[in-house]
Specification:
- The chain has 2 helices and 3 strands; from the N terminus they run E-E-E-H-H.
- The chain is an alpha+beta fold.
- It has one domain.
- The longest helix is centred in the C-terminal third of the chain and has 15 residues.
- The two termini are about 30 Å apart.
Length: about 80
């Protein structure tokens, strides 16, 4: 099971510019786990966590698109074969 499947959202404080909302997640590419992050917007633009969560919905669906969900029990046991 992948960690951070839903990703995580946090506020990053900056010294010389406005604070920003950052979304982070892990990607598995060619068997190697890679840490990714993206700035969603400034705290002035997205005033609270709820607004930032709404901005992240599209990104969450794209990072979870590759993780297929089995539609039946048989599909989840696809690696088992009957002899």
């Amino acid at each position: 099971m992948n960690r951070f499947q839903q990703g995580s959202l946090f506020k990053l404080e900056r010294k010389s510019s406005p604070d920003v909302w950052v979304f982070r997640w892990y990607d598995n590419l060619a068997g190697k786990r890679t840490y990714k992050k993206q700035i969603i917007g400034t705290v002035a633009k997205l005033r609270n966590r709820r607004e930032a969560e709404k901005a992240v919905i599209g990104l969450r669906s794209s990072i979870n698109a590759e993780i297929g969900t089995p539609k039946s029990v048989c599909e989840s046991c696809g690696s088992l074969s009957t002899a």
